[in-house]
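Incident log, structure service

09:12 report received: a user says their structure output differs between two submissions of the same chain.
09:20 pulled the input from the user's history:
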Amino acid sequence: MSGFNYLKYAKRVLWKRGASPLYFVLFVTKNCNARCGHCLLGDHIRHAGELTFDELEKVSASMEDILFFTPTGGEPWLRTDLPEIVKVFHRNNHVLNCGIPTNGSMPGRVVEGSRQILESCPGIDLHIDVSIDGIGEEHDQFRGFPGLFDRAITTYKALQELRKHYPNFDVAVQVAVSGYNDEKLLDIYDYLINEAGVSTVFTLLIRGAPKDPGATWSAPIDPAAANFKIENYENFHRVLEKDNLSRELPGYTKMPFADFINAKRLIRPKLIAKMVRERQFLLPCYAGSLGGAMFSNGDVLACELLTERVLGNVRDFDYDFEKIWQSEKAQETRNWIRDTKCFCTYECFLTVNILFTPRMYPLIMREWAGLKWAELTHRWGSGGQRATDSGPQNPETIKGTGTVAGGQ
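09:34 re-ran on a clean worker, output below:
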């Protein structure tokens, strides 16, 4: 996909009032075949009443074009029609970038479904994120699924093989950081890199009760999972940053502007750690304008964490998403987010907030320049030492720029 296809979204980035979502998170199901104690949804009961494929097609037809589309769950691949759902949003909404998480429990379905999406959606930038939170039986215990670790590794390796055949496909491992594994992050990382051959790693910091240290709104989960040390998260990300800058971890490589996304990944964990430590607003949140979410039952939300502020259900509005999004209740929620300076550690919408806040661009460009310099020196055979010296290395560097802390 050419980078020029992304330029049409510039108007919404620059003029956000009344904008439709550029980043849309769709919970295609709340059901899951794992029983993770750190899950945001957390109740683990069997859910019914999901929007059917035909209903989702109607919703899609009512929406404007979407830049980032994230079908999630639950375990999204439990829906056998997931590839068809992606195809509909690609056809109706010209989705350019689609990211799908998975616990890796169904290797065959994930690989074949990814292949179907890539074959049927010309030009889409697809990436699959496989969750791995521990090594061997520990991972299985965290997720309440015997044998899941082996399945997840099998899924990742099969997707890496598929990646060789499609120039617009990437695969990554996402590590959910919690009280279960924060003391063992470096051991997990060592296994992923040296044993499993993983090339892209990123984290999701647990959100939920007892109160998420980086948010007001939370869901019920195992209290032990929330008892993590932010220092362990920060130390892990310093290692990830060093290896990204030395190009030991190349990160995303297939999509246009891939290194801007990789640069954003260097900035985001520093913001998250700073929010957790200081519990303060750092930059504007565009949930309700550039970012939006819809639960599998049709509830539309500005953000998945604002469950007490459902904007409306598409079944009550003849599947017209825009009617809900442009409603008085939606505007009241946008005003509330702005006026209260709502903030949290939600990685998806932090992506929106970082990429679409113009005053963040100098910092993104600085990290991007560090990555490009590292790439050049790596090719020259001297990338390691010079690369690790490039770019900001700790949260205080961000604090001093004025581009983040100045959002107060």
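09:41 both user submissions now match this output. Likely a transient worker issue. Closing.
09:42 reviewer note: The mean pLDDT is 85. The beta strands are 23-27, 68-72, 97-102, 125-131, 169-177, 201-205, 291-294, 299-301, 312-313.
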